UniProtKB/TrEMBL annotation:
Pfam families: CTP_transf_like
PANTHER family noted in UniProt: BIFUNCTIONAL COENZYME A SYNTHASE-RELATED (PTHR10695:SF46), DEPHOSPHO-COA KINASE-RELATED (PTHR10695)
GO molecular function: dephospho-CoA kinase activity
Superkingdom: Eukaryota
Coiled-coil features, chain-numbered ranges: none
Annotated GO biological process: coenzyme A biosynthetic process
Name used for this protein in its record: Bifunctional coenzyme A synthase-like
InterPro entries: Cyt_trans-like (IPR004821), Rossmann-like_a/b/a_fold (IPR014729)
Domain Cytidyltransferase-like residues, every copy: 160-232
Organism: Diaphorina citri
Length: 252
């Protein structure tokens, strides 16, 4: 399977993901989408599936731990899909890239393959044995990294955030994911340009603003295509926040 470019891992838990990545890396994956197994014995309509047991602060801590641990896999562009957590009645998985291989670590139901919309004509199914993976260290680390104890589980209609987003990395992905987790309708992202870049060291090496905006939009549309996104250039610290009264929360 040495020509595989894009895969999706359907894992039974967050704690097993990092332990499975060395097995996936052997297939020379470029982009790897990750989602939790969305079914229990009652099927996709059940409200007691694995992904419904998390609240936003818990998901945040697990996202931080997962993205942090996946940075050692330099050739894999990890994207953790979030719409299963916020919109639990939606089981359709839409990705911008066609899926070459579906990885799973438990018996997979036949109808889950139908949920993955964009599959290559010759896609493959690969079972990964996770029985020897110790999840306890991941759970301990993710709980320790959670600084959001006591934060209400609020969801807002329209959130906003800003950044340079040069060469999208794990920190950017965490920040953007936090905004998505807190939004029910729309996310606006300000991408710095012009005079806001000149104070940075080696600012001339920063990717063109249009490329950075496209990378941000691609990531957001992958992790949750159900939201509306507005990616804008900003040349001052206020960006669109000084003109748009619909913003309800700022992610930072």
């Amino acid at each position: 399977m040495n020509n595989t470019k894009t895969g999706i891992l359907i894992s039974s838990s967050f704690g097993k993901i990092v332990g499975l990545l060395p097995l996936i890396q052997r297939d020379i994956i470029q982009t790897l989408y990750i989602t939790l197994y969305p079914y229990d014995d009652n099927g996709p309509s059940s409200r007691t599936n694995a992904t419904s047991t998390f609240h936003t602060p818990q998901i945040s801590s697990k996202l931080i731990s997962t993205y942090a641990k996946t940075t050692v896999f330099k050739n894999i562009n990890v994207r953790i899909l979030l719409n299963k957590f916020q919109r639990k009645n939606q089981w359709e998985i839409k990705t911008s890239k066609s899926i070459d291989v579906i990885y799973f670590d438990q018996v997979i139901k036949e109808d889950i393959k139908k949920c993955i919309v964009n599959k290559a004509a010759d896609y493959k199914m690969v079972y990964l044995d996770s029985s020897n993976i110790d999840e306890s260290s991941f759970d301990a680390n993710s709980n320790a990294s959670c600084t959001c104890t006591g934060i209400p589980d609020f969801i807002y209609s329209h959130s906003v955030l800003g950044g340079t987003f040069d060469r999208l990395h794990a920190g950017h992905k965490i920040l953007l994911s936090e905004a998505v987790l807190r939004s029910s309708k729309k996310v606006t992202v300000g991408v710095t340009d012009g005079p806001m870049l000149h104070s940075k060291k080696l600012w001339e090496l920063i990717e063109p603003c249009q490329i950075r905006k496209e990378n941000v939009l691609s990531f957001l549309q992958d992790i949750d295509p159900s939201l509306e996104y507005d990616i804008v250039s900003i040349t001052d610290i206020f960006g669109p926040t000084k003109d748009d009264p619909t913003f309800e929360v700022m992610t930072c």
